[in-house]
């Protein structure tokens, strides 16, 4: 069994509680206007436009036409990502569960667990189930960082060895959701209810955009009374750094002011989400 892995960060303290190894998978069914890593949305199509721009010749073409990435030679300059017009990356390793597990083992004495992210890691549920089952005997917890596109209720076995899901509720309302993420967001809200009922909701995150008072407030007023004090609620300030230029024109190039974000965190707490805070 193979899955495309964009990168593995051995030690992260921003991807769940404690120090964790974060595993980022390639591919995402959303097309978020504010995506900070759009190179993880699609798989490489092998167009070859990135080949000539690599300053250390870490990219080459295989006989089957695919792009080969030499991760030992790569200096992570991102020239290939800047060149790619397909919101993809050639810097992907197709890995087995055992290969990922081997990298986790190197960090195991120093981490609380692993977090699978992306892109959208739930595009590969069979792989995640096998990985979680292999990681649990190491005494580590397993978390899923998800945009909510996966139907968790339709596959409860995915949560068997998973301690919880960190869920993005990026928009509420079909129209704003379609503008922001490319679909109506109904599955995300269904997951919010299901994960709470299953006791598997680790945290919820909502992005606050400058000048979008109606949309921001709608999301907070929807989420806060549902989750109450049962999980953390991260109110995230929009930051345009790394956002694609064509999308930045719609959302603007201003960072959400901390005072504005704090106002929404206070609103969330007033509605029962006592664990709401700004990041």
What does this protein structure show overall?
This protein is of the alpha/beta class. Among the domains are: 44-90, 2-Layer Sandwich (Alpha-Beta Plaits); 169-279, TIM Barrel, CATH 3.20.20.70. Helix content is 29%, strand content 22%. The protein is built from eight helices and eleven strands. Strands 5-1-2-6-7-8-9-10-11 form a nine-stranded mixed beta sheet, with helices on one face. A two-stranded antiparallel sheet has the order 3-4. Strand 1 and strand 2 form a beta hairpin. Helix 2 (97-107) runs parallel beside helix 3 (125-135) and helix 6 (213-227) packs parallel to helix 8. The radius of gyration is 19 Å and the shape is globular.
**Rg for CA atoms:** 19 Å
Figure out the total of helices.
Answer: 8
| CATH H-tier superfamily of the domain at 169-279 | Aldolase class I
Give the N-terminus to C-terminus distance in angstroms: 37 Å
CATH architecture of the domain at 169-279: Alpha-Beta Barrel
Shape: globular
Average pLDDT number: 94
Largest sheet: 9 strands, mixed
Proportion of helical residues: 25-40%
Helix-strand sequence: EEEEHEHEHEEHHEHEHHE
Strand order of the largest sheet: 5-1-2-6-7-8-9-10-11
List unreliable stretches of 5+ residues. Answer: none
CATH level 3 topology of the domain at 169-279: TIM Barrel
């Amino acid at each position: 069994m193979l899955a495309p892995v964009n990168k593995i960060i051995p030690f992260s303290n921003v991807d769940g509680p404690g120090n964790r190894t974060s595993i980022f998978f390639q591919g995402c069914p959303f097309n978020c206007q504010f995506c900070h890593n759009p190179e993880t949305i699609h798989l490489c199509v092998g167009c070859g436009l990135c080949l000539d721009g690599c300053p250390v010749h870490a990219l080459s073409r295989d006989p089957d036409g695919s792009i080969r990435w030499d991760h030992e030679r790569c200096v992570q300059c991102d020239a290939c990502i800047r060149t790619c017009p397909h919101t993809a990356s050639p810097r992907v390793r197709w890995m087995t569960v055992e290969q990922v597990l081997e990298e986790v083992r190197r960090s195991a004495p120093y981490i609380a667990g692993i977090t699978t992210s992306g892109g959208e890691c739930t595009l590969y549920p069979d792989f995640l189930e096998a990985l979680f089952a292999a990681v649990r005997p190491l005494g580590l917890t397993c978390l899923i960082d998800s945009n909510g596109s996966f139907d968790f209720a339709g596959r409860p076995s995915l949560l068997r060895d998973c301690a919880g899901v960190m869920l993005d509720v990026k928009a509420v309302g079909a129209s704003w959701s379609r503008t922001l993420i490319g679909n109506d967001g109904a599955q995300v809200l269904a997951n919010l209810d299901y994960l709470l009922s299953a006791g598997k909701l680790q945290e919820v995150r909502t992005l606050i955009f400058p000048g979008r008072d109606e949309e921001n407030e709608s999301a907070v007023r929807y989420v806060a009374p549902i989750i109450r004090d049962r999980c953390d609620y991260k109110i995230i300030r929009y930051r345009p750094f790394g956002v694609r230029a064509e999308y930045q024109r719609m959302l603007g190039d201003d960072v959400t002011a901390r005072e504005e974000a704090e106002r929404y965190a206070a609103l969330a707490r007033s509605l029962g989400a006592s664990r709401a805070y700004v990041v």
